[in-house]
Specification:
It is a single chain. It is built from 15 helices and ten strands. It has two domains: about 150 residues, Periplasmic binding protein-like II (D-Maltodextrin-Binding Protein, domain 2, 3-Layer(aba) Sandwich), CATH 3.40.190; about 120 residues, D-Maltodextrin-Binding Protein, domain 2 (3-Layer(aba) Sandwich). The protein is α/β, with parallel strands linked by helices and about 350 residues long. The chain starts with a helix and ends in a 9-residue tail after the last helix.
């Protein structure tokens, strides 16, 4: 009888103890899962994704747009903070914040940029804009349609006599105290257009925009200089002229007040890139890949800037509208698989 009671007690202890052992085992396994060093990192890393909002409109729009997409699609803690070229690059190169600068003109801060890259604190991903040539000569769409052969500045000498049979065609340049005014004068000489183009140098940026808008609205034959992205170009149909290849030696002469024998050259292509702090590549590779695809088409940025000129418009409102309505454009930035 005593032996039977002992056996019953052992069985009862085993039955009562089993759930506790099982619970310990489950907790141990759960702890192993949580601390598994092989687990993938969160898509946005563990740091705040501060995005530099520079002080000019296109950079302001890009910062707000990217912050909204990262928060919406990846659930990132993405915050927009004020920035400017030199200070932002310096901070990224020393502290790793901000994490993102969507519109970094690296040649304008070459010394600071190169130092940060050499210290492996930051690097570039995709170009900010989809096209690399940001300044050049343009013609109205009507002229382009009537003269489909006119695709390059080198073809103006042949085409202009038929475009403007009497007198000279106006060339709207930039204000005379800007460097581009000097370059345009020398380029006109380089292409042999002195007797075919009448150079107009507006007093300021406002007058420059007004002259171009009036000429385009009246369908006047005109050639004009401009740069992108820019709101004025979103309001009209135009064709950029191929300026040919960039020639460094020719470009140096074109920028001189006295250039005895000017030769044609494209305007220098200024690198404008999306810059990331180095930690983003290691801690948030999904975000780094996103920015590797996030080049904004120039034509789209032209349109966004034009919308910003509408009464009551704000950077935040335009960014909200872009994210809500333009998924066909920014969706590919997410890649094939979005988390």
């Amino acid at each position: 009888m005593t032996r039977l009671l002992a056996l019953f007690a052992c069985v009862l202890f085993s039955l009562c103890a089993t759930p506790a052992w099982a619970q310990l085992t489950v907790l141990d396994q759960a702890q192993d899962v949580v601390s598994d060093p092989a687990a993938p990192p969160p898509p946005c890393g563990t740091q705040t994704l501060n995005i530099a909002r520079m002080s000019w409109p296109s950079a302001e729009l890009l910062a707000e747009i990217h912050a909204r997409i990262l928060a919406r699609e990846y659930r990132c803690d993405a915050r927009v903070i004020p920035g400017d070229l030199a200070a932002t690059a310096s901070a990224m190169g020393s502290t790793g914040q901000p994490a993102v600068a969507p519109e970094m003109w690296i040649t304008r801060i070459a010394e600071v940029w190169n130092a940060g890259v050499e210290r492996q604190q930051m690097r570039q991903t995709a170009p900010t804009f989809g096209e690399g040539q940001l300044e050049g000569w343009f013609i109205p769409a009507e002229i382009a349609a009537a003269h489909p052969e006119l695709t390059a500045a080198s073809g103006l000498a042949e085409a202009l006599p038929s475009i403007q049979p009497e007198g000279r065609t106006r060339f709207i340049s930039c204000p005379p105290d800007w460097a581009c005014a000097l370059i345009n004068r020398n380029l006109i000489r380089a292409h042999g257009l002195e007797n075919l183009l009448e150079i107009v140098e507006p007093a300021n940026r406002f007058e420059m925009d007004t002259l171009i808008a009036e000429a385009m609205s009246r369908n006047e034959p005109v050639v004009f200089y401009y740069w992108r992205p820019n709101a004025i170009l979103a309001q009209f149909e135009f064709r950029p002229l191929d300026m040919g290849a960039y020639d460094e030696e020719a470009a140096k002469c074109l920028a001189r007040l006295v250039c005895e024998a000017p030769k044609p050259s494209a305007f220098p292509s200024e690198p404008v890139v999306i810059a990331l702090s180095e930690w983003v590549f290691s801690e948030a590779p999904v975000v780094a890949s996103y920015f590797g695809r996030a080049s904004m088409p120039l034509a789209e940025m032209d349109r966004l800037l034009a919308q910003l000129n509408e009464p009551g418009a704000s950077v935040e409102g335009i960014a909200d509208r872009f994210v809500a309505q333009k998924r066909d454009l920014w969706g590919p930035w997410l890649g094939a698989i979005a988390p």
